[in-house]
Amino acid sequence: MYYPPIAGPQDYASHTGLSRRQFLRLTTLAGSGLTLGIVLPGCAKTGGGSSADAGPGTAPLSMPFVRIAPDNTVTVISKHLEAGQGVWTGLPAIVAEELDASWEQMRVESAPAQVPLYGNLAFGGKIQATGGSTAVANSWQQLRQAGATARAMLVAAAAQDWNVPAAEITVSEGMVAHAGAGRKASFGELATRAARQPIPTTVPLKDPANFKIVGNEKLTRLDARAKSSGRQQFAIDVMLPGMMTALVMRPPRFGGKVGSFDASKAKAVPGVVDVVQIPRGVAVVGRDMWSARKGREALSVTWDESAAEKRGTTELMKEYRAMARGKEAVTVAERGDVERALGQARKRVEGEFEFPYLAHATMEPLTAVCRLSPDKCEIWAGCQFQTIDQANAAAAVGLTPAQVSINTLAAGGTFGRRANPESDYIAEVASIAKATGGRYPVRLIWTREDDITGGRYRPLNYHHVTAAIGSDGKVAYRQRIVGQSILAGTPFGSMMKNGVDPTAVGGNAAEQYDLAHAHISWNAPKVGVPVLWWRSVENTHTAFSKEVMIDELAEAAGQDPVAFRLGLLGARPRHVAALQLAAEKAGWDQPFPKVKGRGRGVAVHESFGSVVAQVAEVTVRGDTISVDRVVCAVECGIAVTPDVVKAQMQSGIGYGLSAALYGKITMTDGHVDQSNFHQYQVLRMNEMPRVIEVHIVPSGNPPSGVGEPGTPPIAPAVANAVRAATGIRLRSLPFDLAAARKA
Amino acid sequence: MSIKLTVNGEARELEVDPDMPLLWAIRDHLQLTGTKFGCGMALCGACTVHIDGQPTRSCVTPVSAVQDRRVTTIEGLSGTAGQAVQSAWVSLNVPQCGYCQSGQIMSAAALLAGNPHPSDADIDSAMAGNICRCATYVRIRSAIHQAADTLAAGTAAPTKG
Questions:
Q1: CATH says A9-222 is which class?
Q2: Structural domain count of chain B
Q3: Segment A5-19, tens digit of pLDDT
Q4: The complex's ipTM?
Q5: Does position A33 have pLDDT exceeding 90, yes or no?
Q6: Chain A residues lying within 8 Å of B102, measured CB to CB
C-alpha cells in the first residue's frame, strides 16, 4: 500500500493552485494584520485574481482555512493536531456555523507547518502548536471570520449571477437561495464564481442566539467513521515504498551516552539492514518490525554513565522533603501575614503530599516516519509542535526548516507527550535517516517498554501545607512545593516569571481562593530525569493538595464542604456557577445514605480558562476504592461542540482516575522499575465509574479549554469521598489505603 | 517458512519467520494496518483479531500458530454483530484518539456474537482486556448495549457477510 504524501510547505503552493511567489506574498499578507485567516489565494489584490489561477482539478474557492470544492465539500484546514480531543470536529463546526453549511458536507485536513499563517494565537502566533487546551479558544474568532468571509463571497457570486441584491439572498444548510427570483445553488456550484469576488474587508459575524451548529449536541465527530472501521491513518500506519523500520536502544539511565557498541550479532539477524549510532542511542534498522526487534535484542552496547542520574525515587523524595523544610525557596504568592496568623491559631491542619513521576502512556506508542533526500526531508507523525518539530528535524539532518515538510497525522493520544521542545522521537527518526544516508524511508517505532521507561514524565512532587482558621474566621495557608521545573533550560524558559515556573506551581490555593493570609513557595531540585507537561500539567498536583486541604479546613471549621468553598470563592462567578451546578445535580443538599464504606466528596478547580467541579461517590471495600458515580459541571464559555465537551470531561475523569488509583513511575538507582501495562497500570473498563454525568454551565463567555480541565478535580474529589466513607485522609497519589491506615 | 492462512476470507501465503507475531505479519506483510500495536504483551487489546471467530491478541500469537486458520481483522469485520457495533460506535461518538478502537470493536463484536444481551458485568468482563487511555469506556458500554438492542430488534443493516 502506498501512502500518498500530504501537502507540506513546499507543496502548499501547488496544493492551492498558487505559484510559490504568490503563495508567499499571500501568507506574508496574511500575517500582517487582521486579514489573517481570510485571505483568498487567487485574489491577492481585491478582485484581481480569478479562478483561472487555480488550474484544473483544484478547488476553486481556496483559502488558508477553508476550501470549497466543486463536489460541494467544504474542507477546513486544521492548524491543530487531532489527538482525540475533538479539534477535527470543533474547528469545522466554527466554520460551518458562519458559513451556514450543512454538517454532512464538512471535511477536515491537517495544515502544513507554517507560521505565522498557522501559528497558535494563544502562544503569540509565532509557533504552530497544539497544547494548553487552546485549540478552539485561539481559533474561535479566526475561523468565524474565515467562514463568514467565504459565505459573503458565495452570496456575492450568487447576487451577481442572479442579478439580485446580496441582502435578499439567504444561506441555509449549504444552499444559497433567493426566494423572489426562485433561484438556488449549492456551495459547490457557486465556488468557482465566488473565487472571482472581491474579498470583503469586514464581514458580519452571527449573533450567538442564531447559532445552529455551534452548541449542537447531535454533531457526529468528523473522524468517528474512520476511527470505527480501522481506516484512520496514524503515523504507525504509514507505508512508503521501500520503507524500513527502526528501533533505538537508548541509555538504561537518563543522561547516559553510548560508549561503544558491537553490532555484529544484530547485523546477523535476518532482515536487519543497518545498525547506526545516533545522538540518542543506537538504531537497528530492519525490513520490518520483527527483524528490527530481534536485531535490537541482539545488539550489545556499552554505556557511558558518567553523567547519568543514578538516584532512585525514594532518595529523591527524601531530598525533596528536606528541601521543603529548608529556608531557600522562591516565593510564588504572598498575602497577609501567614506566619503570625498560623502562630495565633488554636488549631492547625497540616499535610504532606507526595506525587510520583507519571508516564503519559499514549495508546499509539511514539512513531514517526522520515524520507530524506539531499535537499528535502519529509516527516509523518502525530506532530503537536509542528514548527518546532520542523526546526528540530532540520537541525538533525542539516537542512533548513523550509526544506522540511511536516505531515501531521491523527495521533493515537498525546496528553502532552508529543508537545516536546526537543521533538525527541521526530529528531530520532530524522537522525536515523541522516545516518543511513537517506537510502530508504524509515519508520521509527517506540515499543511500549521504550515509552514507559523513556522519561518526559509528569514531575515528581512534594507539597507541605500548613493551614488554619483564625478566631476571626480568616484562613491562613502556607504551602511549600518541591518539584522540577518543566520550562527551565528549554526554549520555553522565557515563560518563567521572576524565577517561577507557572507550569510547576500554577493553580495553587492562593490563586483560586480568597485566602486572607497565604504564602506559597517553590523549590526546583536539579534532577536528571526529563520531565514534561502531562494532561493538565501543574494542576495534576496543585489541585489535589488544594482541594484536600480545603476539605480538611471545612471539617475543622465544622462546615459543609460546598458551603465552605463558596465562602472562600469571593468574586469568582464561574467557580461558583460550576460548583453550585455540580452540587445541585449530585443532590448535595440531600443527606448521603449512611452505608458502611460509602461516601461522597467534592472538588472544584480552574485550569486552562475553564472551571470544573466534580462530586464523586465511592464505595470502599477493604483496601479497594470503587468510584460509582461522578457528577461533573464545567464552565468552558460557549460550548462549541457540547458532545465533545462531555467526552473530554469523561476522558479527563478516566485519565485522572488512572493516576489516582495506579499511576506511578519509580526508579531504583536511576533505573525505571516499570516497563509495560502490567507494572504501569491504567484504568480499565471495569474500574470506570458506571455513571458519569456532565453538565455544561450555560455561558456566553468565549470558548475556553476542555481537553485538560476535566482531569484535576477527580483525584481530590475521590480522596474527599474516601475520607467521608472511612475517615481516612489520602494525601498522596496513587492512593494507598493500606499505607494510609498505618500512618 | 511458508505460512498459509485465510485473512478476511482470502487465502494468503506468507514467507516470514514463523515466530513473527501475527500482528506484524498482517501489518507489515499484508498491509492491513487497522489492527494496532499497543504493548506487545497481550496487556492492552489494541491488536485484537478474530481467529476462527475467537477474539485473540495478535501481538503474542506467532504467525505459525494460525496456519490454515481463519483470521478476521477490523478490515474484514462483517456480519450483523460487527455492523451493529460499528454503527453504535459512530452514533454515540465513541472514538476519541481512536487508536484502540479497532481492538475494542473486535472484542465487542465477539462478545455480542456469543452473548446477544450482555449485562454491564458481562461487558466489564469481556472488555477489561482492552485499554483505552482516552477512557471512552462509558460510551463503549453504552454502544454495546445499543448494538445489542439493534440486534434484538433485527434492524441491523444487511451485510455481505
A1: alpha beta
A2: 2
A3: 333 333 323 333 333
A4: 0.96
A5: no
A6: 230
